[in-house]
């Protein structure tokens, strides 16, 4: 169906941070399939794990023991200081699990219509519940009636949440992205996550962090909350976890970990041996390559280099981000910029209208990172030349 306006280009294969089109042209990938291929394309360890597991067992259903799923669950829990995991197949599905968990948590406390605080300009997915939780009208329009039970607060404003809390005794959870990706790499003010954690504690709300995009090493720690020094009650992730093999995870801690019981939730494909073996290998590779720390170094290197070249531009609003989740906000219209990037040999993305969103693989060399920054700058210069 015609759900995407696609670029007129087809890639035939990739190698690390490089993509090749059918005409043999080479591109530096600054998108990673939207924060998915953090280890780059055709990663040898990932390819080997997939083919080895495919030769043994792809799928068996959750009606049986799955050792590799338990192994992955234990690994994720150890990394994120969580207790239990539900496995799904995408970010939206992981968030659906979190939303259902929060509602059940509320009902278990005797709350009839449990509500969840969500953020303006949030993005949580395209299923009915997750698009209802999202703050972008464009993805909701035409799909009403929306799922009820979401109360919206401006992102980054702790007082606004306090006001909402004071006026609603049916609330049971707060769900947010630690950095808003789809909205254009929007960062909350310093200390916001800590303040939100404290407010959730005061109110006995579950803090649900959507780390579908920020997780898996991209923002300089495996989960972004580890940088802030707080723990959520529930965290969801997906994108980078399988390096392209679909997998989503909803992790929970403490009381939240005990909410789902046998029969509460389910998935046919979720946590299958192929996806879990792949994700375990992705985690092995991230740890062996120290890619979370590399993400921080590379992010500083790229933003520093772009700042030098773009700093004096009138059209530059801001370069922001953490690790390899970087936004370059311009004051001008960005239409056509992605195409200009392609002719400069770089795959880019624009999010939130006027922000170039960079989500390159974590495996970049210093030279590739410099080249990436230079090509972004060149693309912007050419874009401004062409613009009226
Ligand atoms: C991409 C994304 C989702 C949705 O993930 P899908 O795998 O496309 O369902 C949810 N939340 C955030 C923060 C995302 O970036």
CATH architecture label of the largest domain: 3-Layer(aba) Sandwich
The neighbouring-strand order within the major sheet is 4-10-9-8-7-5-6
Mean pLDDT: 97
Q: How many helical elements?
A: 13
Q: Could you describe the largest sheet, including whether it forms a barrel? A: 7 strands, mixed
Bound molecules: pyridoxal-5'-phosphate
What is CATH's topology name of the largest domain?
Aspartate Aminotransferase, domain 2
Distance between the termini: 35 Å
What is the CATH C-level name of the largest domain? Alpha Beta
Task: Give a short summary of the structure.
The chain is α/β, with parallel strands linked by helices and 388 residues long. The chain contains 13 helices and 15 strands.
Name its key features.
2 domains, 4-stranded mixed sheet, Aspartate Aminotransferase, domain 2, binds pyridoxal-5'-phosphate, 15 strands, Aspartate Aminotransferase, domain 1, 7-stranded mixed sheet, 388 residues, 13 helices, alpha/beta
């Amino acid at each position: 169906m015609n759900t995407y306006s696609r670029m007129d280009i087809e890639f035939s294969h990739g190698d690390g941070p490089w993509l090749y089109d059918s005409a043999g042209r080479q591109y530096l990938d600054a998108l990673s399939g939207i924060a998915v291929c953090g280890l780059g394309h055709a990663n040898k360890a990932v390819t080997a794990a997939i083919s080895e597991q495919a030769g043994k067992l792809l799928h068996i259903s959750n009606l049986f023991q799955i050792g590799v799923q338990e192994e992955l669950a234990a690994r994720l829990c150890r990394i994120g200081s969580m207790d239990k995991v539900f496995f799904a197949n995408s970010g939206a599905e992981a968030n659906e699990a979190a939303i259902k968990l929060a509602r059940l948590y509320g009902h278990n406390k005797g709350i009839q219509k449990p509500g969840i605080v969500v953020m303006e300009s949030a993005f949580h997915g395209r299923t009915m519940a997750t698009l209802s939780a999202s703050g972008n009208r464009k993805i909701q329009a035409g799909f009403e009636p929306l799922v009820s039970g979401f109360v919206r607060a401006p992102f980054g404003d702790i007082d606004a949440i306090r006001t909402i809390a004071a006026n609603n005794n049916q609330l049971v959870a707060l769900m947010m992205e630690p950095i808003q990706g789809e909205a254009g790499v929007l960062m909350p003010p310093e200390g916001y996550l800590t303040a939100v954690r404290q407010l959730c504690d005061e109110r006995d709300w579950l803090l649900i962090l959507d780390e579908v995009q920020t997780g898996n090493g991209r923002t300089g720690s495996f989960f972004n909350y580890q940088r802030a020094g707080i723990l959520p009650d529930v965290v969801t992730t997906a994108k980078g976890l399988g390096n392209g093999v679909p997998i989503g995870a909803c992790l929970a801690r403490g009381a939240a970990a005990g909410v789902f019981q046998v029969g509460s939730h389910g998935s046919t494909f979720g946590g299958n041996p192929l996806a879990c073996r792949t994700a375990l290998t992705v985690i092995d590779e991230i740890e062996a390559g120290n890619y979370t720390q590399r993400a921080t170094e590379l992010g500083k290197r790229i933003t520093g280099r772009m700042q030098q070249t773009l700093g004096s531009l009138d059209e530059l609003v801001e370069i922001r981000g953490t690790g390899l989740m970087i936004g370059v906000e311009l004051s001008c219209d960005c239409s056509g910029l992605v195409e200009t990037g392609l002719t400069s040999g770089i795959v880019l993305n624009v999010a939130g209208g006027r922000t170039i969103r960079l989500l390159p693989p974590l495996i970049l060399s210093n030279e590739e990172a410099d080249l990436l920054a230079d090509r972004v700058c060149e693309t912007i210069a050419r874009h401004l030349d062409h613009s009226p």
